[in-house]
Input
Amino acid sequence: MLITNGRVLTFGAKHQIIEDGGILIQEDKIIEVAPSHVLEARYPQEERLNAQGMLVMPGTIVAHTHFYGTFARGMYIPGPPMKDFPEILQRLWWPLDRALDEEGVRYSALVPIIDAIRYGATTLIDHHASNRFIDGSLDVIAEVVEETGVRAALCYEVSDRDGPDVALAGIQENVRFIKKAREMNNSRIAATFGLHAALTLSDETLDRCVAEAEAIGHRGFHIHAAEGPADREHSLAVYGIPTIDRLAQRGILGPETIVAHAIDIDAWEMATLRETETWVSHQPRSNMNNGVGVADIPTMLRGGMKVVLGNDGFSNDVFEEMRVAYLLHKAERRDPRVMPADQLLQIVMSNNAALAQQFFGQTMGRLEPGAAADIILVDYDPPTPLTIDNFPWHIIFGFDGRKVDTTIVAGRILMRHGHIPHLDTERIYARSREIASDTWKRYLTLLT
Ligand SMILES: [Zn+2]
Output
């Protein structure tokens, strides 16, 4: 397939805008990037996809999300407003994940993946929980990933919160699925070892997870840590050391591990995350919603830390998450120079891509020969000149996911002119409403 007539933003080492640019795709890879007329002359027989002057750029990547949170939208939570993060976990997320059955897991993955295709997010790193349907739950999500055509890295969040049998089942689900993902050898499905959060995992369980991962030759975990004051207070009260120190002692950190949030950490914990080359995932919309504080991302970036951007289950519109990050840190620091758009774009296009490359073993986040053909066409008509230098500010002040016209993953067109031909989205949404309604009823019975 030959994409023609686009304003191609290449990203990567030789980041440039190719006006009236084209991209040759064969199977799931980019073969050549050049002006349209050059490629048209060279490959006259190739099937064409006319970009009609739209921006052509790599699909976006979500570093931390939760498909399973889909049915929380509009859900009634009895009682007074939740006063802090532990209450949000106990009254919203934990009974909701217990209420999910197989069909609940399937549809709670289908809906956000449809959103991802619409908004141009081509790769998602998910963190799953459904504590009354654990065994095989990652297979159900993998089937949805397979059917919808996106790329996803999956894991199950092990936790002691529902007792030792449930913790063990979570461990087994990670081990089983990591092995299965290797055997599947599917370039769009990857696996890692999920852990819920430092505050719901005992030392014994963490040690068990490390041992089980080692036994199958797997490196790296995906865990929440220091998401608000409760995690730090719990760690100090029960273990006598701060959260990140404890995770380091237990062997959880490292270049393949993702720590989501890292808000309530001190300078030495930040240094530990840096020394261990651990990925730190930032989710500003979620942090604001939960009232858990603001991660010191500007300082982490100053230290060259591996910061990535996730969404924690908010919409898969990465441009929206970028905009919130852009505003939040300026407000918090009272300094309009903090978190400039070009730095933010570096996080999203370069760091998120480097993380995804670890999972999928291919070049991502750039349009160049040999890279994954994960490409979006954005129908953005700039009212001011758009250049390679000011493009990040066009994103912050002019973009949103709804401007994405075409989404391509691994060389397959998943959406064209806003239409997703292989998915009956109306039927999926209608069925999702029915399943959500049943899930909400079960949720109320499971609320303790
Ligand atoms: Zn999360």
